[in-house]
Amino acid sequence: MDEHLKRSIMIEHYQNPLNKGLTDDKSYKKVNMNSKTCIDNLTFEYKINNGIIEDARFDGEACAISTSSASILTEMIKGKSIKEAKEIIDNYKNMIDEKEYDKNVLGDANVYDEIYKQPNRKKCALLPYEGLEKVLEGK
Ligand code: ZN
Question: Which region, left, alpha or beta, applies to residue 31 given φ > 0 means left and ψ of -120 to 50 means alpha?
Fold first, then answer.
């Protein structure tokens, strides 16, 4: 993916984030994630039924990297099984840490494949995935 395309996907998800806005539905699992090094403070909600992530939402204040990453993750994860979600999280973390990963499972999240060049932004890109991980682990 070329630099220009990556940037435009990120900007689009930052300016028009998908799945933004929380619900009052108590059946959703909720997690708040914030960063000490950035303005990022996002709350995520996931509706999980019979091992399938049926819905994903988020809201809050965050930088462009974190907001676009949350938008891409919540959109990508809907309809996925917990097993598939864990696979996505593992591969995404490996990508951020410059380890081997399968880009075929990451969809638009591949736009962060060079975020390691900005070490202080890695946390921003990871935040939504760490939130989902917490929810799946039941923490
Ligand atoms: Zn950030």
Answer: beta
For residue range 22-55, list pLDDT tens digits in order.
Answer: 999 999 999 999 999 999 999 999 999 999 999 9
Sheet of 41-49, strands arranged across: 29-34, 41-49, 52-61
Distance 26 CA to ligand 1 centre (A): 28
pTM above 0.90, yes or no: yes
Distance 5 CA to ligand 1 centre (A): 21
Domain layout of the chain by residue ranges: 3-137
d(CA 110, CA 88): 11
Residue 22 to residue 19: CA distance in whole angstroms: 8
Ligand 1 center–CA 64 separation, angstroms: 7
Q: Ligand 1 centroid vs 126 CA: distance in angstroms?
A: 9
How many angstroms separate the alpha carbon of residue 51 from the centre of ligand 1?
30
CATH tag, 3-137: 3.90.1010.10
